[in-house]
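Methods — Computational structure assignment.
A single polypeptide chain was analysed. Its primary sequence is given first, followed by the predicted tertiary structure written as structure tokens.
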Amino acid sequence: MKETNIISKLAETEKLRIKSDSIPPAQTCILYSHDSDQVPILDAMFIDIVKGYALTMTDSAVLELLMFYGLRISEVLRIKKNDIKSTGHIIIKGLKGSNDRLIQPKYYYEFWFKSGYGCLPLGDIYSRFYYYRLFKRMGIGQKFNMNSNTSVTHYFRHNLILELKRQGVPEHMLSTYIGHVSKKTLKYYVNK
């Protein structure tokens, strides 16, 4: 029943998203360069990373969801076969009190719906520590909010929220996009 509600809400959102800025961003990343003729910023970053490192298809598919949707690595590793919908969407089960949300892979759609489908959930094969070590070797990571620890797998979540905030996306839309139930949680990401 819950799944049907999410999919019907998605259909409503898709119809209204273009007409209203009060509808939270869904399924596509809204990070664009300032020059509209250029490739969107996030797409360019993603392509550079994938081209610059010898990543497996699985690693690239995971990276895409982290970068474009700000998912936690644990949310990606928990995607199950029944979370993959015939509509072309994936239901992400929110963790830590987050809301469930729908996403749609852009570059590695084929992985989630065909070639990698039999390996789900990925958490049965990979751990968050595998991705932590992989991203660390790639030089991905940064300290945020005077935190003494470097964010590595969480880096993409921080980066996405800060870039959307910089581009003027209202906080209530950021909270919805990232899956936060409370707007207070977003303060951790946007306060410097």
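Note: The first helix runs from residue 2 to 17.
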